[in-house]
Request: fold
Amino acid sequence: MTDTIAAIATAPGEAAVSILRISGPNAKNVVEKLAGEAVHRMSPRKATLLPLKDQDESAVDHALALWFPSPGSYTGEEVVELHCHGGVLVTRRVLELLLAAGARSAEPGEFTQRAFLNGKMDLTQAEAVMDLIHAQSELALRAANEQLDGSIGREAEAMRAELIDVLAHVEAYIDFPEEDIAPDVGEALKGRIQGVAERCDRLLATSEHGRILRHGARTVICGQPNVGKSSLLNLLLGFDRAIVNERAGTTRDTIEEIVQVHGFPLRLVDTAGLRQSADEIEQEGIQRSEREIERADLILEVVDGSKPMNEANRVPMNPAQESRRLLLLNKLDLGIHPSWGEVESIPLSCSTGAGVETLRVRIQTLLGQSGALNHSHPVAINARHKACFDQVRNGLRAAKEALEMGQETEFIALELREAMTALGDVTGRVDIEEVLDVIFSSFCIGK
Amino acid sequence: MSDFEYPKTYDVIVCGAGHAGIEAALASARLGCQTAVLTQNLDTIGQMSCNPAIGGLAKGHVVREIDALGGMMGRNTDMTGIQFRMLNAKKGPSVQAPRAQCDKKAYQFRAKWVLENQPNLDLHQGNTQEILVEDGRVVGVRTSLGVRYRTKSVVVASGTFMRGLMHVGHQNAPGGRMGDTISTLSDSLRKHGFEVRRFKTGTPCRLNGRSIDLSRCEIQPGDEPPPRFSFLSGNVEDDDFWFSLNRWRPNMFHVEQTSCWTTYTSSATHEVIRENLHLSSMYSGRIEGVGPRYCPSIEDKVVRFAEKERHQVFLEPEGRGTNEFYVNGVSTSLPFDVQYRFIRSIPGLEAAEIIRPGYAVEYDYCPPTQLYPTLETRLISGLYFAGQINGTSGYEEAGGQGLIAGANAALKTQSRPPLMLDRAESYIAVMIDDLVTKGTSEPYRLFTSRAEHRLLLRQDNCDLRLTPLAQRVGLVDEARACLLKDKQDRLGEALDFANSTVCEGIRLEKWLRRPENEPCNLPQEIKTKFSSEIWSLLATDLKYAGYISRQETLVARTAKMENRMLPPDLDYSSIRGLKKEAQLRLSTARPATLGQAARLQGVTPADIALLTILLRKGEVSDE
Reply:
């Protein structure tokens, strides 16, 4: 941790301001190579205007500089932030100059890693920051912020306290057979375990939502050829003008695009297939489409609403898939055929844009319904947490089963302790002293 | 007056002859070291200052571990016990534990006799006042009479005697136990740089049994057959000493069991106590030491659990040759007249005569984080602590530490590697690791819940777990080693037999695995092939094989961390990124391994991750 790193901190693209961050023991020296004597005018945490020049002394930009002396910075190291005039070329040029002046290009997440290693944040916070960096939408950003504030921490803490309570009953039953106490056993104990399991389930339900927020809801547009799928895609992309990124997948023909719908990122999958002309769609393409439907969070089925309803033209789906599907009757401008009558659907016109706002609202409602998008609820947004909570739930389930099978209490305790250990990875280890504290405050032990 | 230098030089001197001191001295002598015990009173060797009982959950496990390591506590209990029970007999195999009431006097006189007859061991009456140190190494001790004993190692097992202060109501008097004097050794330890703090404990009054109306109490008989503590009992011949009350020989263990009795406090009891709380030394702020939460005084119970209408009281005979009864559950520091009144408000005790008052005692202890896992002090080479000086409570906890401290004091003089047990193989190790790693904020007692690998630490497999190690070190004699070998062979044979025999239409091995089957219900012709001990061990191993292997997997997973050594001179304050609290905890505790570090309170997984990264990056030397 002795070198100095630099990176563009703001998202790439045209913007009013872009920020470059330099961290490491030589941060100030590196900037001095661009700004000259002016760096000595900087005072801690105050904005200073610095002229930035290249090796030939020609002006590159005027930047506002913020200097954070070690250890009072994000990474705990010497940090300088340069707020440049936005613009891809200028920003990139400043970064090149910083690298030429002795900084190293930062690896993804390296600032956060340094912050973690320098004790500026704990593991959960560091992870939340990583999510912040990867956040693809405003809601994901809010979720990440909430985690930093510790709302997930609070919920996990509550679960931890309940679990300690359960263990206290179990351990008191085991360790104090001669005492005149009545720790919960049997049904009462089962009820307690069930209570913790339910809390765990609620947290787990939110993790699915977290995935959607971070990576986008996998969205498939399907339907017969020439019903307007490509038009819908272009409409969604165009309407929002909010393409966050566009990247090639592992195969040349899968391109995933992300659009935002009322704050939700939609990851439109297999759009390459949609862009192919109808006669190119072959058997393989259909199979792939079926796979995508199976994995999708949101299915947009497009039909030609101006033609009579015909089951043969529909995309076959099971009830689970249907619950994630919105049926779109395209070509509203040509008039919707009366045979569609009572079918739950959204009439719209990809050519005029009529009905699209209704679609956006319905998408928001559908994705919000998963029980997850209740803002009062803590948001478990990352995979590590989900893995931990999965283990917690497995432990609780095993404890309940052991109890139902009439297993001896020490084996129920074993399962509960495994749940406790898993939870400890999120909330911090549970020391047995905490369980003993509860035992001695709840039960009068004293033979 | 000039000092007298005792002409004999010792390898190991043990200060104190309580439950820790006894095991320390015997372990050292068994290892061939010239050992001396110094005690301020030869008549109180192995005295049970509080209740006359040995064992219970986790504690009974420890006694059997001590026995498996060649110690005397288990045999002494078997020889002098007057009531034996197996606690949690209806619960699972790893949480069953034996408990025994002992004849208090028989126990201690037999203990003295065992010490007197141990080769390499001398007894001296003397009150150790000073630890003699040269160049950071212990070289001897000096008694209050000015006698200097030269030695290479010292084990201090001072019990409650260092600056002991006893309280009854608002009166107090110096003493480690009612009727005995005090030790000023802690002054010497303080001078040597040790941190010394105060703990408190208490004991109830004792009654004359003739004044108790047992017809108003509930009887609590012993178990038949009596469970035993020593793996030798019922296997080798017993001794024929005066105070050996019970008889055994191969396949026989005979006890004349005496009953205990239970009754309850009444609302009148609670009223008397509440009215007089201001007279309790504890509630009037006269006691600075911290007492144990699991053993509160009756004052404490009545206040903290005010909603409880009655508290259980156990009446336990102190011996076969005495009428004295221990009144378990009403430990107190109230004035004598209040004790008298509240005792007489308890059903069955309306006419009870108190023959010894209850009292609280405060004493000095040295926070055990000042020790290595060998129980040697970090400050002075060759100086070891065991028992209540380390902030523990309980005869069994003391005995377990005594054995380890005594063995290590001896091994050090022989330049041999120390004896260190693993948390996954013994309760003694769980206790010692807890103590030296985390310290303790109240008198420390073992509970089975403290062992994360509880399922492996059964009371029936202590010898299988620990005797082989003790044999390698030289702590057990030939007889015990043979006995173990025989048991291991029989177990192997029994497993083969179970795999090749049919019982009630299925393979015997399968029959034993079924939860509804118990080995005692085996057909006679099969049952007689092996002893009930072997059958029970085999059945448990088979029935719980799934759980046992899960626990073993866990042990293997943590073994890597346990083996990852942290440099002893590591400067934690220089590690950037460690949180302040973690730096502080680590610097104080100086964990030997990463595993130990991870168990420290205030050290988070993130801190451990950081240490792991540093170890891996080589920024911290592994060597």
Q: What stands out?
A: The radius of gyration of chain A is 28 Å.
